[in-house]
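Example with several molecule types.
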Amino acid sequence: MAVKAVISGIGESKLGTVPELSTLGITLDAAKKAVDDAGLTFQDIDGLILHPAFHVSPRYHIIVAESLGIYVKTLCDTMMMGGASYGAALQEAQWAVESGRCKNVLIVGGEKLRTGHASGSAMMASVGAHNLDYEYPFAATIPAYYALLARRYLHEYGLDESVLAQVAVTTRRHAARNPNATMRELITIDDVLNSPIISSPLHRLDCSLVSDGAAAYVVSRAGTSRDPSREVGFLGIGQAQSYYHMGQLARGHGNHDLVRTVIDVAGQQAFSQAGLTPEQIDFAGIYDSFTITVLVQLEDLGFCGRGEAGDYLATGIADPGGKMPMNTHGGLLSNAHPGACGGMLIVTEAVRQLRGEAGERQIPKVETALVTSASAVASNFSVTILGPAA
Amino acid sequence: MSMQNRPLPTVTIESEEFWKSARERALKLQRCDKCQEFRYYPSPICHFCSSDKFTWERVSGNGTIYSYTVLERAKGNPFEGDVPIAIVLVELAEGPVMMSNLIDYDPEQIAIGQAVTLDYADVNDEITLPVFRPAKTA
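Resulting C-alpha cells for the full complex:
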C-alpha cells in the first residue's frame, strides 16, 4: 500500500516580543513543541527542512539539527524561498515521506525581527531579499515594493484604497478572538485610511507586524504518530515561481504580470490534485504580508473575479462565522509576523482548525483548509490544501 | 533630492558599461544582436532568445510611469532622513521597465501613464543613478 504523508505535530514558540531567547533558542523551542505534539522524539526525526533566518551560517540547518541531537538524517537543507519557503518545504517533506526516504521530517523556522535586528526592512534589503544593485539604491524598502504593486492594482481596476483596508479590517475581527494576538482592538476602514502612510497607497495598518517568533511542524507517515486521529492529510499541493526584479515582473509573460501572479498555476495544481473548487474550501489561510498580497491571491486562486477581492471580503464571507473564515489567528497583519517564517503560523492554525483544537475561534465544520505562502513581491507562491488524514 | 545616503550598487563585469554610461549622462542598455530586444537589468545573455551577442545602445530617455509610490517612512534604512522619496516603475519607450526615482514632481500630478524623461543624480564620483522627471508638455 502506498505510504501517505500527514502533518503529525505542530509547535509555536512564544510570539511577539521575546528578548529572553536567541534566534536559535526560539527556533529550538518551536521544534521541541512540534515533535512532542506528534508524540515523537528527536530520535525519530530523520529529515529537517529549515526556514531560513537572516544573517545565519549557510550550515544553519545542520547547526539546528546538531542542537536538537539529530545525528543521522537523510534530508537536511534550508529552503531559500523567503516567505514562500514553508509551503515549498511541505511539498518536499511530503515527497520525502511518500517516497520512503524519510519517516519523519521536521520543518522549523524562527526569527527575531522585533528584538533581534535594527529594522526588518533594512535587514531584508541588506541580505539581498530584493535586488541590491538596481532596486535598493532607489530607496526601495519592502513596503515600497508592495506599494508599487498596490498602486498598479488599484489603477488597473479603478479602485480606491478602501479595498486594501478591508483586508486589515477582516483580519482584525479574527485577531480579536485570539487571546495571544498582538493587535486585538477592532478597526474600521477609516482607521486604516487614517493611519500614517508608510509608502503610498499603503498605510501602517496595511502592513504586517514586526515580531519575534518561531513555528514548526512534523510531516510523518500516516498512522505512525501518537494519536493518528489528530493527523492532518495533504489533499492537494502546488507551487509556482516567476521573477525577481520588479521591472521584469511588470513586463510580464503570457497572461501573467505584476498584478496577475503565477499563484494561479500553484492553485490549479493543488485544486486539481484535491478534486476541489474554491467554493469547497472551509478555511482560507492566505499569506498576508500586506493587504494587497491577500487581494491578488484571492483573485488569482479563483475565489472571486479580478478587481473584486475587496468587495468579496466586504460580504463577510471570510469573517468569523462566515462561510470561509480567513486567517482565524489574525494573520501576519494582526497576530504576529516573525519575518519570513511568519506564514508558518498560518499552517499551524489550519492544523488546529482541522483537528478541532482552535478553542473559541474554532470553525464549526471544517474539512478543507487552504494555505498559501507568498514572497518576493508576489512572485513566489505555494498552495497547500489540507484535510482529514483518512 | 539628497542622494548621498543611498545604498551603493556593486559594479560587475555585466554592469560596468551601464554605470559608466549613467555617469556620462548618456544611458545605454544592452540590445540583443539576434532578436533586437532591449533588456534591463544588465545580464550576460538575452532572456528572450538566450543569445550572448549584444550591443550597448543609448536609450531615448522617454518613458511612462507604470506604477509609483511615495515612500514616507523608512526606519532603519540609510536614507530614512531623506523621505519623502518617489519610487517609480518606468516603462521605457524601448520596452524594458526600470525601477527608479521621480524628481522635481508635483505630488498632486504624479500618475500612472504620466510621461517622464530620463535625468541623472550623482551619488558619488563613481555612481550616478538614472532617475526621471516629468516630461515637459509641448
